[in-house]
Amino acid sequence: MKKKNLIIFGTRPEAIKMAPLVKAFKKTDTFDTRVCVTAQHREMLDQVLDFFEITPDYDLDLMKPGQNLYGLTATIITNLQPILEEFQPDFVYVHGDTTTTMSASIAAFYSGAKICHVEAGLRTFNKHSPFPEEINRTVTGHVADYHFAPTQTSFDNLKNEGIKENNISITGNTVIDALLESVPRADLIEDKEVDYLKKELDFSKRIILVTGHRRENHGQGFINICEALKQISISEEDVQIVYPVHLNPKVQKPVYEILGSQENIKLIAPLAYPAFVWLMNKAELVITDSGGVQEEAPSLGKPVLVMRDTTERPEAVEAGTVILVGTDPEKIVHEAIDLLNNSERYKLMSKLHNPYGDGKACERIVTYIENLSK
Ligand code: UD1
Ligand code: UDP
User: Fold this and answer.
1) Atom of ligand 2 nearest to the CA of 96
2) Residue 364 CB coordination number (10 Å)
3) Which of 22, 186, 221, 232 has minimal Cβ neighbours within 10 Å of its Cβ?
4) Which are the catalytic amino acids?
5) Structural domains of the chain, with CATH
6) DSSP string covering 184-224
């Protein structure tokens, strides 16, 4: 009998990073592989499912506007019970550090399935940053049976926490698998959003691409971020700031209120993955608090200012592509303006780096599980 895989995810970044794994498992006929989405995100998840042509076998459809962590955590666990009991997977795959990840790993543990953690071992060692993701990832790491660490650093973190070396595999990050598949497709496909960007944006100006959504930046952090972007747009007239705004109301409100009518700043809806990758390729500078973007930008040779005080992805900081600027407006403005005007420094920061993988992470994960199943 074929071994049964259940791949569970719920948010945009998990979907992007799990899509190539779904494909890789479906290519083999060794497993019966099914996909379950919690739909912790809805529109932003569906954009990814559409692009990668994934039709989930189970869709819990859980997103509520302005949802909170208590309700979401509880409802994911209870809603997974009937699926786990009916399908009885041998292996459950979770990704990274979201509420879906942690809750699904607990539910899978109750079911008796073996838990496979993709993107395991990243740590800041500060439980409040990123919040609640540092704890989500750590809890998942201690519930999981098999750990797919993207880098040597994440492998070492797990080993130092007492995880058995034999159960950890360094695979690279599946985000690079997704990126390498999407860069050529983004250029080739007739993409409505790419057409829209070509019409709406002023490519005679230098593009700064911005994203932001972290909970620890909600409130004053976002006000600071918006004030910094405003100052950059005023002082650098040959720059256009493009910001696809996350759908979280705690992000939408300050961003549209402070930047909605600012010249040289274009606020747009979240972009589907190929259009976002296309735009990142065209950008001169990326300013973000996103985890995934920190991994993609070095592979595209784009300097990144990260609006966080800590990062669980130190590799690109060490490689010199990423600078942590926190949410201090003066620091953000100073670093952005210096980079835009100091070509030597810009050149140094925009060298291509690939600390996060070679595009073969999913192949390695499939082989690892095949070997276990022999
Ligand atoms: C979640 C993850 C975070 C991840 C981020 C990626 C947790 C605790 N946080 O944060 O780790 O980096 O996703 O984006 O798991 N919303 C929509 N439509 C969507 C998506 C979100 O309307 O497609 C709105 C809803 O009002 C929702 C709110 O955003 O309630 C917050 O979503 P939630 O998943 O709870 O938190 P994120 O901040 O998106
Ligand atoms: N992304 C996207 N459209 C956008 C903004 C980001 O497809 O408008 C992609 C981006 O390329 C990256 C991922 O979404 O792969 C990052 O998601 P997010 O910042 O929401 O979450 P994080 O990575 O911080 O968990």
Assistant:
1) 25
2) 18
3) 221
4) 97, 119, 133, 213, 215, 246
5) 3-172+359-373 (3.40.50.2000), 190-351 (3.40.50.2000)
6) HHHHHS--HHHHHHHHHS-TTSEEEEEE---GGGTTHHHHH
Cα of 66 to ligand 1 centre, how many Å? 9
Alpha carbon distance 216, 251 (integer Å): 12
In Å, how far are 41, 139, 232, 303, 334 from 338, measured between CA atoms? 37, 40, 11, 12, 6
Distance 296 CA to ligand 2 centre (A): 10
pLDDT at 373: 81
Tokens of 13: 């970044």
Which residues 6+ apart lie within 8 Å of 224 measured at CB?
A: 327, 328, 329, 332
pLDDT at residue 125 greater than cutoff 90: yes
Nearest CA residue ID for atom 3, ligand 1: 98
Q: Tokens at residue 55, please?
A: 């039709």
Structural contact between residues 278 and 272, judged by C-beta atoms closer than 8 angstroms = no
Element (H, E) at 242: strand 239-244
Query: Residue 352's pLDDT is what?
Result: 76
